[in-house]
Specification:
By secondary structure, the chain is an alpha+beta fold. The protein has a domain at 13-73: Ribosomal protein S19/S15 (30s Ribosomal Protein S19, Chain A, 2-Layer Sandwich). It is 31% helix and 13% strand. Strand 2 and strand 3 form a beta hairpin.
Length: 110
Amino acid sequence: MSRSLYKGPYVDEKLLKKLDRSKPADGVVIKTWSRDSMISPEMVGYTFGVHNGREHIVVLVTEEMVGHRFGEFSPTKKFHRHGGKMQKELDQKKKESEIAAAKAAKASSK
């Protein structure tokens, strides 16, 4: 659900204060826990460390990100991979093809 238009976009006040104290050319990572803050045009060029619950993910703000929220660029869950018998077979075939390609490259270089 979106925020009502008369209230305007939500940007954390602490984040704005940190923004005023630094410059984009400094290259300093501004740490924030405010994942629900909206990215405003003044933030373009700055580097933010957005907390995902465990660590700070470094996000360089570009013009395309304006209007989105910081949480969209810092995933909280890590995808490992789908498992199962079929996946193991695919991985094995991939390994074999890499080995065969390496052997062919080695043979052609001699």
